[in-house]
Amino acid sequence: MIIDSHCHVGKGDRMTAPWNTDAPIGPYLRRARAAGIDKTIVFAVFHTDYAQANAHVARIVSRYPHRFIGFAFVHAGRDAGRIFPMVQHAVRHWRFRGIKVHGYDAMPTREVCEAARAFRLPILADVVGRAEVVDMLAPQYPDVNFIIPHLGSFGDDWQAQQRVVDQLVRYPNVYTDTAGVRRFDYIVQAIKRAGPHKVLYGSDGPWLHPGLELHKIRLLGLPREAEELILGGNALRLIRDARVGVEGKMMRPPADYAGSGRRHDVVPQPAEGVIGPKPPGTQLEYQL
Questions:
Q1: Is the CB of residue 134 less than 8 Å from the CB of residue 123?
Q2: In the prediction, which pLDDT does 64 show?
Q3: Which end of the chain is more exposed for a tag (fewer CB within 10 A), N or C?
Q4: 3-state secondary structure of 35
Q5: Contact between 165 and 135 (Cβ < 8 Å)
């Protein structure tokens, strides 16, 4: 099974650049199908209200339940105090399997990491070249898995990418994806030094072509077992333990939760048109 672990969907509201305006799903789906990609992890584009943006992603996932796996996008600063209920809502009602945080918004905080820990979710954390942040996150939360996209820098910051390769080797809970990594030998280094179990295939669709990004993995000429880990096995392993669709009593944040003191037991209601809780026994979206 081939899983693209990095794709944006939906619309943004800033409209100053493609990545905060629109991530059309039609062209991506055509390209992914042609490339033989089976499933895709999707999350929002930049937005001023990630609760609204995540609801939009949930509607898209509900239209393609056998192809898309949702991650909840949060702003670690602006959403402070409500991250736990935002994540809980996304996991319980939409069966999302991870958290996305972008350093252009704010770097991951304890509040984000503790929500990830509570629901056993990986955090896809774009550190925008600030690889030193990973040295703060990984040892503080050894039971949370961090996926650092682009080997740490979409902007080809070679020093950041080399540092992330070192971090892949040193920290058992640090992973990377290959989306937009143009220095091919750095992907080779990451696999050779850290092992194929630490690298995920990702495209950064819909703006980068998923077939082109997939071809980079094929060009590595890896043994079949190693290639299968990168193309899907690692992603499956990182999301399979998520506490999705939990029925019964509402979960509360841990006692040492790093929120702002607001009520965290209140879960926002689904936006109009968004699928709510599944009937008991209905768990079709993520039979992976």
A1: no
A2: 97
A3: N
A4: helix
A5: no
Answer yes or no: pTM beyond 0.85: yes
Can you tell me the distance from the alpha carbon of 229 to that of 234, in angstroms, rounded to the nearest whole number? 5
Looking at residue 161, the DSSP 8-state letter turns out to be H
Q: What are phi and psi of 207, to 5 degrees?
A: -80, -30
Given this model, what pLDDT does residue 258 score? 59
Listed in sequence order, the residues at least 6 apart from 19 whose beta carbon sits closer than 8 Å to its beta carbon are 8, 12, 45, 46, 207
Inter-residue contact 124 to 152 (CB < 8 Å): no
Alpha-carbon distance values, 240 to 95, 97, 122 (Å) = 11, 8, 10
- In degrees, rounded to 5, the angle at the alpha carbon of residue 35 between the alpha carbons of residues 29 and 37 is 65
Q: How many angstroms separate the CA atoms of 234 and 218, rounded?
A: 16
Domain ranges of the chain: 3-239
Greatest alpha-carbon pair distance for the chain in Å reads: 52
Contact 152, 161 (CB under 8 A): yes
pLDDT value at residue 265: 34
Identify the CATH number of the domain defined by range 3-239.
3.20.20.140
For Cα atoms 188, 190, 194, give the angle at the middle one, nearest 5 degrees.
130
Q: Does residue 230 have a pLDDT over 70?
A: yes
Nearest-angstrom CA–CA distance, 71 and 123: 9
